[in-house]
Design goal:
Nucleotidyltransferase, domain 5, 2 domains, 7-stranded mixed sheet, about 40% helix
Length: about 500
């Protein structure tokens, strides 16, 4: 039996084929897609048809590598970037490009909805989350207020992974995990919030697809794709989920104690819990996961986007940057970086900007800037971990994924800053692997047996203990540095906010 995982991210689509008996990835394919250029600051959009075109290319490449084994494909699942707003008309055509998770143009709509609903505390009581620019609900209101002609055409609201599921099956559905990132769902009850929907449009619920358990499949592969892909049978299409939900499954983060830290362009840090974790300050997202549990999550907007800027600035490879960081002492001789190049989500500072604080003639060096940058983005994630711990999450192990996790030095810095053992995975495919595992799990639940998800993750998403890093002698120092970074951010961007 073979299971496909399709991961549609902000930059590309990747497809992997997981062979169930061996537990190995036996084929893969990928294809890029791009942002729409030339938009105003804060507007980040993509054409959803670019996702399906990239997915088609990536799937075909994977199937070509599989050869005749492609006839053993039993199920497929999709991981997609969260929060994006895909508007469809009555004929199921895309009305306009999708506004993405990283689009921050909806700050005014967030403030408007928060005020009309009775304030931030009331919003959190209603849905379990604050109303943030990344979420889907303010994007819908933005369309209504800024493009009324397009809004009048709106018949369906889909998320990116829902749109790919629709492309695969012809069915429109939302599962709890990705739906919890819309700011339309009460995560405690897993039901749409009538109060939030009514503030946007009393008819909005009729524009949302069916909401159902993440354990339920969406359908089967549509006949036209089955024929185009040369398959003799139609594989099951399982619910899939948002990239963080699939990343949790792909890192074995499906039981309490395990926390995932993703060091990608942006950063996420999340845990599994058997009950909702509601942050009264709204800093930690109270998401559902894609196994019908909950996924409290802290997100930062700036991780490798910052380290890549340093590499570009000095013309370094990743190895050269790591060498420069290694030759610079912890704390970069007093240089501290606030990594808000794209604003920030945790803490919620969408208008903040990056700051190097404490520059001197001694530390204003390539190595100093590099070390401060790597430490600064990791401290940003540590702020989220600290908040998770304050809300009752007790991490025993942090499983690290994303490009930054490949660096031994960076893993050690993470262990020192987080104060928790850090380990990478034997398989680093993350969300794509999580999608393939979910496909296998739900296929087995529906047609073979009802083993728990942990029996699948322990087999396919095991940690690589050779990469394990324990907190070292610098942990206490980094806790002081985290306090300093937090205080400085509040002084610069909260106390002086207009």
């Amino acid at each position: 039996m073979i299971y496909l995982g399709i991961d549609s991210g902000t930059q590309s689509v990747k497809v992997i084929a997981l062979e169930f008996k061996s537990g190995k990835i036996i084929a893969s394919g990928s294809a890029p897609h791009s942002m729409i250029p030339g938009l105003p600051s804060g507007h980040l959009e993509q054409d959803p048809d670019g996702w399906t075109e990239a997915a088609e290319t990536a799937v075909q490449a994977c199937l070509a590598e599989l050869g005749d084994q492609k006839q053993d494909i039993k199920a497929i699942a999709v991981s997609g970037q969260q929060h994006g707003f895909v508007p469809l008309d009555e004929a199921n055509n895309v009305i306009r490009p999708a506004k993405l998770w990283c689009d921050t143009s909806t700050t005014a709509q967030c403030a408007q909805l928060t005020e009309e609903l009775g304030g931030a505390d009331t919003v959190i009581d209603l849905i379990g989350n604050a109303m943030l620019p990344g979420y889907t609900a303010p994007k819908i209101l933005w369309l209504k207020e800024n493009e009324p002609k397009n809004y009048r055409k709106l018949r369906w609201v889909l998320l990116p992974h829902d749109y790919l599921n629709y492309w695969l099956t012809g069915e429109k559905r939302m599962e709890y995990g990705d739906a919890s990132g819309t700011a339309l769902l009460d995560v405690k009850s897993r039901k749409w919030s009538e109060a939030v929907m009514d503030e946007i449009d009393p008819e909005l619920e009729n524009k949302l697809p069916t909401l159902s358990s993440s354990k339920q499949p969406v359908g089967i592969l549509r006949e036209s794709l089955r024929e185009a892909w040369g398959l003799k049978q139609n594989p099951m299409i399982t619910s899939g989920g948002g990239d963080n939900m699939m990343g949790a499954i792909g890192t074995g983060n499906v039981e309490p104690g395990i926390v995932t830290a993703s060091l990608g362009t942006s950063g996420t840090l999340y845990a599994c819990n058997d009950a909702p974790v509601i942050d009264p300050r709204g800093e930690v997202a109270a998401f559902c996961d894609s196994t019908d549990r909950w996924l409290p999550l802290a997100c930062t907007m700036n991780v490798t986007v910052a380290t890549e800027q340093v590499c570009s600035l000095f013309g370094w490879s990743h190895d050269e940057m790591e060498q420069a960081v290694a030759q610079t002492p912890p704390g970069a001789e007093g240089l501290l970086f606030l990594p808000y190049l794209n604003g920030e989500r945790t803490p919620n500072l969408p208008k903040a900007r990056g700051v190097f604080h404490g520059l001197t003639t001694a530390n204003m060096t390539p190595g100093g800037l590099a070390r401060a940058t790597m430490e600064g983005v990791t401290l940003g994630l540590a702020y989220g971990l600290q908040r998770l711990e304050q809300l009752g999450i007790t991490p025993t192990e942090i499983r690290i994924t994303g490009g930054g996790g490949k660096s031994k030095l960076w893993r050690q810095i993470c262990a020192d800053i987080f104060g928790v053992p850090v380990v990478a995975l034997k398989n680093s495919e993350g969300a794509a692997l999580g999608a393939a595992i979910q496909a296998a799990w739900i296929h087995h639940r529906c047609e073979l047996d009802a083993e728990p998800i942990t029996s699948f993750t322990k087999r396919f998403a095991a940690p690589d203990n050779k990469t394990r890093c324990e907190p070292g002698k610098h942990s206490e120092f980094y806790q002081e540095l985290l306090t300093k970074q937090t205080r400085l951010a509040k002084t610069l961007f909260v106390a002086n906010a207009s």
